[in-house]
Amino acid sequence: MSGVVALPLGALRRRVEILAPVETPDGAGGVARSFASAGETFASVEPLNAAETQRGFALGLARLYRITLRARGDLTGGHRVLWRERTFEVLSVRLADADGRFEELLCEETTP
Fold it and tell me: Which branch of life, at top level (predicted)?
């Protein structure tokens, strides 16, 4: 059974909401980006690490997470995931198994 991810029973037990980016013209030649719900699903949410980041002159903490869910095929970097009133920015998406049944999202937790 090579290439098959064996998730333990109950691994996908966190209910998350997927948010898709929506761009609308702002009337000045640019766009205004907002996010709309693209549905709910069950997922596994695992913290990976925390690393210091520098944005401008401010030091911050980048908290990375791996979110595993059943493959949807429509997720890309730029989507967001909501879980327990926490927001995660999707940085990358990859198939977690050769059968294409699961996707792993590398996400960074954002602060409001």
Answer: Bacteria
Examine residue 9 and state whether it is found in any structural domain, yes or no: no
Domain range for residue 102? 14-110
Residue-level pLDDT at 59:
62
CA dihedral 81, 88, 34, 84 (to 10 degrees): 60
Residues 6 or more apart from 56 whose CB is under 8 A from it? none
- For residues 36 and 47, what is the distance between their CA atoms, to the nearest angstrom? 25
Phi-psi region of 10 (alpha: psi -120 to 50; beta: other; left: phi over 0): left
- What's the pTM? 0.81
Quote the number of domains for the chain.
1
